[in-house]
Amino acid sequence: MKVTVTGTPGTGKTSVSEKLEGYEKIHLTEFVKEHGLGTDGEVFEVDTEAMCEKLEEETSEGDYLIEGHLAHYISSDICIVLRCDPDELEERLGERRYSESKVRENVESEAMDLILQQAVQNQEAVVEVDTTGRTVEETVKAIEEKISEGKSSYGKVDWTDSL
Ligand SMILES: Nc1ncnc2c1ncn2[C@@H]1O[C@H](COP(=O)(O)OP(=O)(O)O)[C@@H](O)[C@H]1O
């Protein structure tokens, strides 16, 4: 079983993945750096094709959870897309050492469902989980329920009012 957990930065991928049990975990940024699959410049650029190939190789057997904002490009049995209301996301990202423009870019991308759209194009089963106003534990529980249902569910979240 291969589960991917994706979402805009700050939606909670790392926090919830730490608490999901029963999987070998792969943190994509670490994986990419470890295997030299990215280039450092003004922005860190990932060779997505090479990343997917390497991961297919390394996760062909066993139960894996792959977490990162590019995780939806890796074929999986189920892809979890974490969502967060743009206002709450802005607060979460405000606590990081991000520039104002980086915060704005991520908040807008969340409001436009960008990652959800990419996930739907690349994955068979996509599940959207709203983290807004929930604790990490509540989110983990919601994800576990969705994984056991094993079918796609998305489209309820609508942040277009904040655009
Ligand atoms: N329901 C929730 N699910 C996940 N994270 C949450 C939730 N509510 C608040 N948070 C907080 O939001 C932040 C998300 O950070 P992180 O897990 O690093 O996100 P990402 O890996 O998506 O960039 C953490 O500080 C986490 O405690």
UniProtKB/TrEMBL annotation:
Its EC number is 2.7.4.3. Keywords: ATP-binding, Kinase, Nucleotide-binding, Ribosome biogenesis, rRNA processing, Transferase. It catalyses: ATP + H2O = ADP + phosphate + H(+); AMP + ATP = 2 ADP. GO terms for molecular function: AMP kinase activity. Residues 95-105 are annotated as: LID. It is an enzyme of class 2 (transferase). Broad-specificity nucleoside monophosphate (NMP) kinase that catalyzes the reversible transfer of the terminal phosphate group between nucleoside triphosphates and monophosphates. Has also ATPase activity. Involved in the late maturation steps of the 30S ribosomal particles, specifically 16S rRNA maturation. While NMP activity is not required for ribosome maturation, ATPase activity is. Associates transiently with small ribosomal subunit protein uS11. ATP hydrolysis breaks the interaction with uS11. It comes from Candidatus Nanohalococcus occultus. Interacts with uS11. Not a structural component of 40S pre-ribosomes, but transiently interacts with them by binding to uS11. Signal peptide: none annotated. It comes from the Archaea. InterPro entries: Adenyl_kinase_AK6 (IPR020618), P-loop_NTPase (IPR027417). This is Putative adenylate kinase. Belongs to the adenylate kinase family. AK6 subfamily. ATP binds at residues 10, 12-15, 96.
